[in-house]
Design a protein that fits this description.
single chain; mainly alpha; three-stranded antiparallel β-sheet; globular; DUF4145 domain-containing protein
Length: about 190
């Protein structure tokens, strides 16, 4: 039997307090000036999306991993193979990477904001992490070009395994993704009290 996927559980991670920021914009127009306000709203919205996609991927991987549970050994396949939940999980991972890339690009400007100096020392994903996410996002986004050029699907397809996902020579571990999402959540929720 194959090893199940091991995505750390982030179901306890709260959604950002984006609604509070929206209300503050209406009633406290001077809370954050632009571009900080727009950057923060965009990062918060993308973070909420990334966390949802992560959790939906985890649920889909769980469904995929349990696909043959309860089936007798005589007819159970050696490996799970391709399933609808696996394709759903891959789609959620692709969306997660796209949202995380957007967050990490905008975060550079947001972190430099004098209005957020009080939380500037909170830990955030490194520049190396952002570069890796960018590389994976680029390979996902341009994978269709590889397919159109007749390259093998392994080159152009996001391939999950129990501990992470890979496309071409680029890899993201589920543990790293979970750690980065937790860091980003702490930062954004500190910015939107």
């Amino acid at each position: 039997m194959q090893t199940p996927h091991r995505l750390p559980d982030l179901s306890d991670l709260p959604q950002t307090n984006l609604m509070a920021l929206a209300l503050a914009q209406k009633w406290e127009a001077d809370r954050y000036a632009d571009p900080t306000n727009l950057q923060l709203v965009t990062v918060a919205r993308q973070l909420d999306k990334a966390v949802r996609d992560y959790e939906w991927a985890r649920t889909s991987f769980d469904q995929h991993d349990a696909m043959w549970d309860g089936v007798g050994p005589a007819i159970r396949p050696r490996n799970r193979g391709i399933t609808v939940p696996l394709f759903q999980a891959i789609g959620h991972c692709e969306d997660l990477v796209a949202a995380l890339d957007r967050i990490l690009r905008i975060l550079r400007g947001l972190r430099a904001s004098p209005e957020l100096a009080a939380i500037a020392d909170l830990p955030l994903p490194s520049a190396e992490a952002a570069a890796t996410v960018r590389q994976v996002r680029n390979r996902i986004a341009h994978g269709d070009e590889d397919i159109a050029d007749g390259k093998a699907g392994v080159v152009a397809t996001l391939r999950p395994d129990p501990d992470g996902m890979q496309i071409g020579d680029h890899r993201l571990s589920f543990d790293e993704l979970a750690q980065w999402l937790r860091m980003l959540s702490a930062y954004v929720n500190a910015a939107i009290p």
